[in-house]
Amino acid sequence: MPTVYVNDKPVEIGAEKLNCVQVAAKAGVEVPHYCYHPALSVVASCRMCLIEMGELKDGKVTMQPKVFPGCQTPVKDGTVIVTGDYAKRKGETALPYDPAYKPGDRTKKAQADTLEGLLLNHPLDCPVCDKAGECKLQDYSYEFGHGESRLMDAKNRPANKPELSSKITLFTDRCILCTRCVRFTREISGTSELQVVGRGHHEEIDVFPGFPLENKLSGNVVDLCPVGALGSKDFLYTQRVWYLKTTDNVCAGCSTGCSIHTDANKDIVYRLRPRENLENQGHFMCDEGRWGYHYTNAPDRITRPLTRIDGALKPTDWQSLSKLKETFEQAVFVSAKKSVAVLSPFLTVEEAYRLGAAFKSMHREIRLVLGPVPLTGVDDHYPKDVKGNAVAPTKFTIRAEKCPNRTGVESVLKKLQGEVISFADIAKLTLDAIWFAGGYPNPDVVDAAIPDDWAAPKLLIVQDLFHSKLTRAATTVLPATTAFEKDGTFVNHAGYVQSFHRSVKAPLEVRSELQLAFDLAGKKGLATVAAVRKDFAKELPQYASLAEIALNTNGRLTLATV
Amino acid sequence: MAFEPVLLARVAKLNSGKLEGYRADGGYAVFEKVLKDKQPLEVTTQVKDSGLRGRGGAGFPTGLKWTFLPKDHPGPIYLCINADESEPCTYNNRILMEKDPHQVLEGIMLSSYAIRSQCAYYYIRYEYGDAYRSTQAAIDECYAAGLLGKNILGSGFNLDIYMHRGAGAYICGEETGLIESLEGKRAWPRIKPPFPAIEGAFRKPTIVNNVETMACVTQILRRGNDWFKSLGVPPDPKNPRDAGSYGPKLYTIAGHVNEPKCVELPMGITVRDLVEKHGGGVWKGRKAKSVNPGGLSMGFADCNLPLKGEDGKTEYDIPLDFNGPGKIGCLGLGTAAITVIDDQTSMVDVLHNVCQFFSHESCGQCTPCREGTGWMLKITDRLRRGQGRREDLDVLVDVADRIGIMPGTTICGLADGAGWPVKTAIRKFRREFEDAIQSGAKSVHSKSLQLVGAH
Ligand SMILES: Cc1cc2nc3c(=O)[nH]c(=O)nc-3n(C[C@H](O)[C@H](O)[C@H](O)COP(=O)(O)O)c2cc1C
Ligand code: SF4
Ligand code: SF4
Ligand code: SF4
Ligand code: FES
Asked: Which of A22, A45, A53 most suits a substitution to test ligand 5, by most atoms within 8 Å of the C-beta?
């Protein structure tokens, strides 16, 4: 088996083509790096990833007399890598080095030198920098750098560029010119807005005059930026990052269902970031998803139950709604065929299952309907060429289907009633009762699904985030939860299953869909996803693995069974 | 016996750039003969056996480089001619291009034939307007005469030569920077491997050679390897890796001399002979303090520093072959452009000027080079203003030592070339720098030199 030695620790590499940074990671050794990013081309220019390298052959180690950029240097059987952390290694017996060779010394100096260079013209304005606390320049300087500066001369102070983009600002002097952002716009979005201008230490990131950084993936450059140079205007100066609590989540913006981190403080969502997931979307997310979370904090959100009194919706409380279940059951009892329960594609699998099962247990003939599925344009593939046409191979897709869980809800519907009934089919009918479990971040989607001549049923219970034509006709309006406010599972367009945790608490008066489903089913006690999963795992074999798991499990659902 | 110039034999002739005159002097005869009688591999082998080493700065054996091309490649294979000549005080390519463009073109044709290239890009720095025009005119003449284009002289061999004018940056001379620039991008040198011979211009196998190298190819094919090897310095028997320094070489003499000029001599002349016998000696009756043995990036010699073990000789006496400058801590022969600094000139000013050049020309992608060259400029500027500190000298040497492909911290050799003059100047002239710092004297030049160029 081909073997590489990292700080004397043998690592078997098999047939994989790896560079030194990757091999070191396999050995549990971090090689610090800036310009290297697994999704971008290798430029080996920042020189943070330096390592020493040699070869073990016939029981002898021959080390090269210089340092190498680990990100650019491939390894093969017998390669010996020594990093700046050599002295910190634990328990490995030393390889037979030349006694005069001091493993790691050269690298340590070279890395400290690189950092000294990077800090020369850096403003070191950490106290007012948004990146402070999650900045690689801070982290690496702390770990690998010098404690003091030898610069006696004035620093270069290029002007900031708030006009770089409507969404993103550039603190020009904080940039370390790793060119990750430039490569992103060339290789992933393909839109090529960013470039380097100037030469030598007067180099800056810039755009062509009149061509700002505006593309649907632009926000990713902020995450890619290892320092506080590129800032998201949405997040800028709202929070110090160390106050943020991060949860792993799934974007509800489209049926790609990007794996994300949700950063929140005191139950307010402040920022979404892509969570690397090579099985799903990769390393990135789109701007619509990234900055589309504001609905969850929106002031016009429905945050308490409302009931119609004398023709007008009036705030009420849950106590007064204790008869809701009976009222709906009654309507179903009178005419099950004219009763419908709508399950939106924003519901989690757990919610859809519990709600669906509860309604079906009221009466076999009640129809479960898939809520309106928002569609906008066509799937949008990246990278683009200069003319805006997608180029193969595709590196990112923003889906036209703007909801996270149609596939999951449909799998539940098929199980519970053998077919999926679309909302359009029942919108034409005259009905007696509708329970609408919505959760639509955008009420326009609901409005668009309601025909002009639509006749509202006598009993209309609408659970949703925002007012729409439906709530305006409703007998009772219930507040809904957003994807950030619940535990659950989404299944994306390709059948990829992701479970996630709640990031923030729902507003005080909101009762979760899952709890409502429990109440409707007459179950006692607090609703938990774990219990629901156990239930449906028995019935839907494709979700069997979810019964056992702790949360945050990703997996693929075989599409054929959905 | 005085050496008769070969590469420069025709430059003083009237209308030396015209095809008619070149032909009258035997031009293109060998190209025609090669097309008829020789296989490409034979040409490559002859150039390899001649011992010709590239004249662009690195001194890489030319024929050997050609053999790195993939065998039986379906093509296209490109030849790039490096006419970016931006090393300060270097103008040997310029004379060839302005005064004898056909000699270079014939070399390009022979080399293209050897490496099976049907397309050569002639990358010329923007500032060389005359050289561009005379070379383009010569190319036009060749097309008209059937020496370029399709099925040249009925041989079945096709060749096009395209001139490409740079936009004025030193880094466009670095071979992969040149290729990037040719492709229409910023001249950011590429990481290697892959080397251009495997993946170069437009991702195809590419050979990059200097203008003078091409002229040498013409003469080697015309006069033979024995002639070429009769000139210059054979390999050092004590160094098995030495490929020797054969052939004639164009040396340019600049700086504080009476007669700045470009001369052709067999490799291996000493700096002293070059300056005193060919450059008319140091100007104004002064003495040489320091000299650059091959372009600024090669570093400085101390003309008064005795050579160890060589009685009475100083660094002024080193031979200008591929090994000579290295013996006194300089980077190499470089472009064989000699810059003389007289004893009335402050090394502080010289070094500041050097740092200005490299910080302006650093392409800026590698942190150590981008920041290092800028820092060295700031420090030397402060030294020049009489505000230096002794520690500054240590910082300068530290930075100069740590940037470059030799320590492994950069992508290209510009950084080595930026560090070398700094570390050699300070190591060799430390007393002068220390005295300047102690006295706090300001430079006699109140303003630093203004950069000129087409950018
Ligand atoms: C910063 C830098 C600048 C260079 N500039 C030139 C140049 O102007 N002309 C040139 O021929 N070679 C230049 N070179 C050398 C080229 O990279 C390359 O080695 C050369 O063109 C190869 O040609 P040769 O083998 O015929 O010498 C430069 C190298 C570096 C690192
Ligand atoms: S702005 Fe950020 S990502 Fe872009 S080059 Fe500068 S440091 Fe790198
Ligand atoms: S592509 Fe879809 S899932 Fe991903 S971030 Fe955008 S909206 Fe969200
Ligand atoms: S060493 Fe300097 S000039 Fe060469 S690639 Fe790096 S930054 Fe550019
Ligand atoms: S990460 Fe390797 S050089 Fe930047």
From this structure: A45
Q: How far is B378 from chain A (nearest CA, A)?
A: 7
Which ligand is closest in space to the CA of residue A213?
2
CATH number assigned to the domain comprising residue B95: 3.40.50.11540
> Strand A433-437 vs strand A459-464: parallel, antiparallel, or unpaired?
parallel
pTM above 0.90, yes or no: yes
For the stretch A131-182, pLDDT in tens is 999 999 999 999 999 988 999 999 999 999 999 999 999 999 999 999 999 9
Q: Considering the domain boundaries, does residue A541 fall inside one?
A: yes
What integer is the mean pLDDT of A242-259?
96
Record: contact A66-B374, CB cut-off 8 A: no
The residue whose CA has the least distance to atom 2 of ligand 3 is A254
Residue A524 in this model has a pLDDT that exceeds 90: no
How many domains, chain B? 3
* A234, A262, A297 - which closes a domain: A297
- The continuous run of DSSP H or E covering B340 comes out as strand B337-342
Q: Atom of ligand 4 at shortest distance to CA of B404? A: 1
Q: What CATH code is carried by the domain that includes residue B290?
A: 3.10.20.600
> Using a 6 Å cutoff on CB, does residue A35 contact ligand 2?
no
User: How many CA atoms, within 13 angstroms, populate the side-chain half-sphere of residue A333?
Assistant: 6
Q: Is residue A111 part of a domain?
A: no
Q: In terms of domains, do B97 and B152 share one?
A: yes
* DSSP, residue by residue, A165-216: -SSEEE-GGG-----HHHHHHHHTS----EEEES-GGG-EEEE-TT--S--T
Inspect the interface and report whether the beta carbons of A153 and B191 lie closer than 8 Å: no
Q: Which domain holds residue B331?
A: 247-342
- Structural domain including A287 reads 117-297
A218 and A317 in a common domain: no
**Complex confidence, ipTM:** 0.94
**Higher model confidence: residue B19 or residue A536?**
B19
Q: Is the same domain home to A74 and A206?
A: no
Please check whether residues B41 and B184 belong to one and the same domain: yes
Residue A117 and residue B410: Cβ atoms within 8 Å? no
Residue B422 maps to a domain: yes
User: E strands within A259-319?
Assistant: 259-265, 268-274, 306-309, 312-315
Closest CA to A107 of A178, A33, A175: A33
Cβ within 8 Å, pair B373-A43: no
Q: Mean pLDDT across the stretch B361-372?
A: 98
Query: Ligand 3 centroid vs A217 CA: distance in angstroms?
Result: 10
**Closest ligand by atom to A41 CA:** 5
Give tens-digit pLDDT for B124-151: 999 999 999 999 999 999 999 999 999 9
| CB-based contact, B199 to chain A, within 8 Å | no
Q: Is residue A433 part of a domain?
A: yes
Alpha helices (runs of H) in B224-296, residue ranges in sequence order: 225-229, 271-273
